[in-house]
Every structure is written in C-alpha cells, then in structure tokens.
C-alpha cells in the first residue's frame, strides 16, 4: 500500500526496512498535545483570514479535540505506516470529519509543524524542570537552616582542609542550582518564538497571520526568517546543554552523599525510602538512588553530544536527519526530571550525624590555617613565615598523634617562643568557622542570613 497521505506519485509502498527507519511515531507521539494545540491555532487563524471556511475550521477543531480524548483514553490506534504523530492525527481527523480535514494543512508543512510542536514541548518541560529545581533548592535551604552551625570538614583534594558548616555546604548547591535554573530560563526566553507559518521553508502565498498564531500559542513573536524557523535546533541543544550541566551538579552532590553514607564517614544516613539491601550481605544499606543520580548524567550528556553530531554540517533547510532530535531529548529530559525528584527526596529525608561530622572536622589539622592566621594577627608575622611555623607545629602534633588543640603550649613555644595561651581560642573547629565572617564565608551567622534570603526568594516555588 502506498502512503495515503503523500503516496500520489509512488507506485508501491515502502519496504519494511524503509518504514522502520522512517517512522518516528514510536517516540513523537509524545508531542500529541502540542501538535493538536498548534493545529487548532492554525485552523482558527486560517478561518479568520478567510483561507478556509468557519464551518470547516469548527469541524476541524471539534475533531482534533475528540482525537485528543481518544489518545488520552488509550483508544487511539497509532500506525507506523503513517510515520509520525502529524500524519497519524491528520489521517484520523479525515476518518472523523471527512474532506474538511484536508484543508488543515493549507499554508503549513510538517517542517514548521514539528518545529512548533517541539518548541511548545520544550516550553512545557522547561517550566516543569525549573519548578523541580526550585523544589530541590528549597529542600537544601531547609537543611542549611537546620544545620547552619553544624561543623564538618571542608575538603580540597578530598583531604581535610578547613572546617566548614554543613549549612554552608548545602547552600553551595543552592547557588549552583540557581544558575542551572537561569540557564533554562535564558534558553526559554530565546526559543519562545513561533515557527508556524514558515511552511516548508520559504513561507507561503496564503494571506496568513503569523502574529496571531504566535500569540494564540503563547509565543513572544513569530520567528523572523522562514528558513531559520524550520532548520534550527539550537533551542534543543541549549536545553540539553543546560540539562547536562544541571545533571553534572546533581552527580556531584550524589557522589558526596555516597561518600558521606559510607561506614568510614557516616556523616549522613539516607532514609529507607532511598536505600536498598544486598541480596547476599545482610548488613548492607546501599545508596542506590544516589549512585544512579551520579550515573544518569551520562545519558544526558550523551543526548547533547548526539544532537550536536546530528546537526553538524546540515545544509539548510529541513533534512530528515532532524527527526533524530527527539528520542534522546525526551529521554534526557525525563531522566533529569527523575534525578531532580530523587535528589529532592534524598535531601528532604537526610539524617545528619552532627557528632561524626564534628569529630572528622577536628581531625586532619583542619585549624592549621587558623593557627597561621593567628600568628599573623597576634605576632605580626608575615603569612609565609607563619605558614612555616604552623607546619612545624602540625608536625609536632602529628608525631605525638594528637590534635592541634591538644598540644601543650610549651611544645608550641619550642617552635615559636612568642606564642601564648590565647592561641587556643582559634584552634577549636567552632571558633574556626565562627571567625570566617568574610562575605561568602562559612560562619554560621552568614549561613543563617543567606538561608533566610534564599527561603524568601524560593517562597513562590512552594
Ligand atoms: N517526523 C518528522 C520529524 O520529526 C516531521 C517532519 C517531516 N518533514 C518532512 N518533510 N518529511 O522531523
């Protein structure tokens, strides 16, 4: 059988293989709601411009609305022979309303149709994802408020560096996520333009009103150039890039959770909801959700990479290559949404072991910098000399296997005679974090002020 939508000049139907490689209905059925929205806006505009009759437009719109119900109730029979969502819906419209269905595609092509559908889909998805990011930021800010003064080791090279507060650590992710959100919002501001009416590539001779369809569909304006309208997929690339960066951030937090849950660290405990047991080792509570969030960034970065390669070197205007823009994009965005949901759940339920964190922070000579800073302040020593003296004191403590604040004054004075008992005031981890009041520093009072600011800013998201 030849394709009943465009088969006029073809003698025989496509081979099985051709049909399989050509069909996109398996994944672009995801676009059904956007496709129907776009078609209704187009039909209304055609009638208003006198291109089709009001009766035909009314029949088309009624038919499309009924088809939407059919799809949503699972009654709709998708057909691979009909290639894609656009032809599936149009063929069904013909079955339902007869010849008027054939007028819907006036002054339009699948090229501007699919570009319109996909932009609408992106807009819906980006709105959902930014709201989810807001939810995760809120969960982190709530933990930051709870643990504003909880001391933990801060690391560089995953070696204990200086004490920080857990609240400060949480807020670092709140900041990263806010830039992620900004990237999605920036992309949306650029891509919210309407391709509809660009037709196949050159525009149309019918007296259409692209402003009208753009505004009916909530776009800010029609895309200015018809070739650009049907050929550009940088809007998908931008969203995938924003997704890949966001997923990268989530994977870092996931990795930290995995580390923190280990018996060696025991900084946090994940709730039972987000852990699994081992089939052989009864003692295990595995942080699978965190591990999977850590891993799934691969699919998203992969989708970005795949589409860059699809688009590279494509001549204008539409080429079928561009049908490859959808499948992995759907997967990437669904994956990101799942990662955000899982991470939000893990953070909300996170059980923090403040005692373990504090203990770890006091090991590893984490207040050595505080000692050096004290030598600079109290003895007016140049920082480089203070660094040297501190190194010798750390070595003395290390040799005896004790922490800095446990080393006697006399021992320190052997290295630098001018050191006095006041030095002990900076050697505790609490005093260390409390002293870091510089803008953006980890002091609990900073963390509390920042947390309040964030919780207020995030209020509209709840
Ligand atoms: N299924 C196609 C896609 O996703 C729709 C556009 C087809 N256009 C065409 N001229 N064959 O790209």
Q: What molecules are bound to this protein?
A: arginine
Which overall shape is indicated by the principal axes computed on the Cα atoms?
elongated
Number of helices: 19
Residue windows where pLDDT falls under 50 for at least 5 positions: none
Strand tally is 6
Largest sheet: 2 strands, antiparallel
The SS-based structural class is mainly alpha
Order of helices and strands: HHHHHHEEHEHEHHEHHEHHHHHHH
What is the first-to-last residue Cα distance?
54 Å
Classify the helix fraction into a percent range.
Answer: 55-70%
Strand order of the biggest β-sheet: 1-2
Taken as a percent bin, the fraction of beta residues is: under 5%
C-alpha Rg, in Å? 30 Å
Mean pLDDT: 95
Give a summary of the structure in a few sentences.
This protein has 462 residues and is mainly alpha-helical.
Question: Can you characterise this structure?
Answer:
This protein has helices spanning 16-22, 25-28, 32-48, 54-72, 85-97, 110-146, 166-191, 210-216, 226-231, 234-261, 288-311, 327-349, 354-362, 368-379, 383-400, 409-415, 424-427, 429-435, 444-458, and strands at 151-156, 159-165, 193-194, 221-222, 268-269, 351-352. It is mostly helical and 462 residues long. The strands form 3 sheets. Strands 1-2 form a two-stranded antiparallel sheet. Strands 3-4 form a two-stranded parallel ribbon. Strands 5-6 form a two-stranded antiparallel ribbon. Strand 1 (151-156) and strand 2 form a beta hairpin. Helix 4 packs across helix 5 (85-97), helix 6 (110-146) packs antiparallel against helix 7 (166-191) and helix 10 packs antiparallel against helix 11. The radius of gyration is 30 Å and the shape is elongated. The structure holds arginine. Arginine binds next to helix 6.
């Amino acid at each position: 059988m030849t394709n009943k939508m465009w088969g006029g000049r073809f003698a025989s139907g496509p081979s099985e293989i051709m049909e399989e490689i050509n069909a996109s209905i398996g994944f672009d059925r995801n676009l059904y709601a956007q496709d129907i929205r776009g078609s209704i806006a187009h039909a209304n505009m055609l009638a208003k411009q006198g291109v089709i009759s009001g009766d035909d437009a009314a029949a088309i719109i009624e038919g499309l609305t009924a088809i939407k119900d059919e799809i949503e109730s699972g009654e709709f029979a998708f057909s691979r022979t009909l290639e894609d969502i656009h032809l599936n819906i149009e063929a069904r419209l013909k079955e339902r309303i007869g010849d008027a269905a054939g007028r819907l595609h006036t002054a339009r092509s699948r090229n501007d149709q699919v570009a319109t559908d996909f932009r609408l889909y992106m807009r819906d998805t980006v709105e959902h994802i930014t709201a989810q990011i807001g939810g995760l930021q809120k969960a982190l800010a709530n933990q930051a408020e709870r643990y504003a003064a909880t001391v933990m080791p801060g690391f560089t090279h995953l070696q204990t560096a200086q004490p920080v507060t857990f609240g400060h650590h949480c807020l670092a992710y709140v900041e990263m996520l806010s830039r992620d959100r900004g990237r999605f919002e920036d992309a949306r501001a650029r891509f919210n333009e309407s391709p509809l009416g660009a037709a196949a590539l050159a525009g149309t001779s019918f007296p259409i009103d692209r402003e009208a369809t753009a505004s009916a569909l909530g776009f800010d304006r029609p895309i200015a150039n018809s070739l650009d309208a049907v050929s550009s997929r940088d809007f998908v690339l931008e969203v995938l890039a924003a997704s890949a960066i966001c997923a990268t951030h989530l994977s870092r937090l996931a990795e930290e959770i995995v580390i923190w849950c280990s018996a060696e660290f025991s900084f946090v405990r994940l709730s039972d909801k987000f852990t699994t047991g081992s089939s052989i080792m009864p003692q295990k509570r595995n942080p699978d959700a965190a591990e999977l969030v850590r891993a799934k960034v691969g699919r998203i970065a992969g989708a970005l990479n795949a589409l860059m390669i699809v688009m590279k070197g494509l001549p204008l205007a539409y080429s079928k290559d561009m049908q490859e823009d959808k499948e992995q994009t759907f997967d990437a965005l669904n994956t990101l949404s799942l990662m955000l949901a899982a991470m939000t759940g893990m953070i909300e339920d996170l059980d923090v072991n403040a005692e373990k964190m504090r203990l770890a922070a006091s090991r590893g000579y984490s207040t050595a910098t505080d000692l050096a800073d004290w030598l600079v302040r109290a003895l007016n020593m140049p920082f480089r000399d203070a660094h040297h003296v501190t190194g010798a004191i750390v070595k003395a403590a290390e040799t005896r296997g004790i922490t800095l604040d446990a080393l006697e004054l006399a021992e320190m004075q052997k290295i630098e005679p001018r050191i006095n008992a006041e030095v002990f005031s900076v050697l505790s981890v609490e005093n260390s974090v409390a002293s870091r009041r510089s803008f953006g520093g980890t002091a609990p009072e900073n963390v509390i002020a920042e947390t309040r600011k964030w919780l207020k800013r995030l209020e509209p998201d709840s």
